[in-house]
Specification:
This protein is an all-alpha fold and about 290 residues long. It has helices at about 5-10, 15-20, 55-80, 105-125, 150-180, 195-225, 250-255, 270-280, and strands at about 140, 265-270. It contains eight helices and two strands, in the order ααααβαααβα.
Length: about 290
């Protein structure tokens, strides 16, 4: 954390590097590029000191992240920020934007809410979960003011989506690694099914499919912020994430401030689920065919 910077300031500051610095990380991990400029096959992208991730732990981490995202987008759609001129406009709402607002930008957020819920539903089914009310976390905490102004909201959107992108990139690599291991024995959460190599490879593909949608959210958030070009990156990055669930450089560890009351006001996941159908819009498409 930089001198004079508070936890709230660092989390709300846009950009992945500042986001991870605010969580105690050094920023970007070591580059996986050799001096010659070619990919270095000897580079270990996994934290060898941490407990290895397995499919169930990755699904759990993704479920937590998607529930966090659901709570985030819902509260933006019902919060003070929705009346910003770049969204529903003064006096407008998510379902009835004012003439002075931007209904298209509101639609971006409404569709994102639907998509995050759909992702969570998939992860829950993979974990043999019963209902959102049984998910690991039912309350998330955001810095004060996150849903009050466009700058605070879109800064948080950028930070969160970049973290989700990094997590799914790490998941792609880890599922690929698992599928390549000889004599792998990964079982589902009920210990009733051993995942085959084809299934593990498929989960890598599904992770990449979700990753693409999180990239859309990142760019559309920048569109709402009028940050040009919105699609400014040549490649997405894990930004130092080596694991998804376990270890100090895991996605779960990066998101722990949003599970901590010290971060700011509490927001109910159950409230978001109960109210989402009033503010969300339909989104289409399913997971890739197996």
């Amino acid at each position: 954390m930089e001198k004079g910077q508070t936890m709230t300031d660092s989390i709300m500051n846009p950009g992945r590097r500042s986001f991870f610095r605010g969580l105690g990380f050094a920023g970007l991990g070591a580059a996986a590029i050799a001096v010659s400029g070619h990919l270095n096959p000897a580079k270990a992208d996994f934290d060898s000191t941490a407990v290895a991730d397995d499919p169930n732990s990755i699904f759990t981490a993704a479920l937590i992240a998607e529930d966090l995202a659901t709570t985030f987008y819902y509260n933006a759609l019902v919060g003070k920020v929705i009346q910003d001129p770049a969204l529903a406009g003064p006096g407008g709402t998510a379902v009835a934007p004012a003439a002075s607002g931007n209904a298209g930008n509101v639609n971006y957020l409404q569709a994102a809410l639907t998509q995050e819920i759909t992702h969570a539903n998939l992860m829950r089914s993979l974990l043999n979960g019963t209902a959102p009310s049984a998910d690991p976390y039912q309350t998330f905490y955001f810095p004060a003011g996150t849903f009050d102004t466009l700058t605070a909201f879109t800064g948080m959107l950028d930070a969160l989506e970049n973290a989700f992108i990094g997590a799914y990139l790490a998941a792609v690599r880890q599922f690929s690694f698992m599928s390549a291991r000889p004599n792998s024995n990964y079982v589902n959460s009920n210990s009733t099914h051993t995942f085959s190599r084809d299934e593990l490879s498929y989960f890598a593909q599904v992770s990449a499919s979700i990753l693409g949608i999180e990239c859309e959210h990142r760019v559309l958030g920048r569109v709402i912020s009028n940050m040009n070009p919105a699609n400014q990156l040549n490649f997405e990055s894990t930004d130092g994430l080596t694991n998804v669930f376990h270890g100090p450089n895991s996605a779960v560890n990066a998101l722990t401030p949003f599970l901590n009351p010290a971060t700011g006001p509490a927001y109910s996941f159950a409230t978001a689920i109960a109210g989402q159908n009033m503010v969300s819009i339909a989104s289409t498409g399913g997971i890739p065919a197996f």
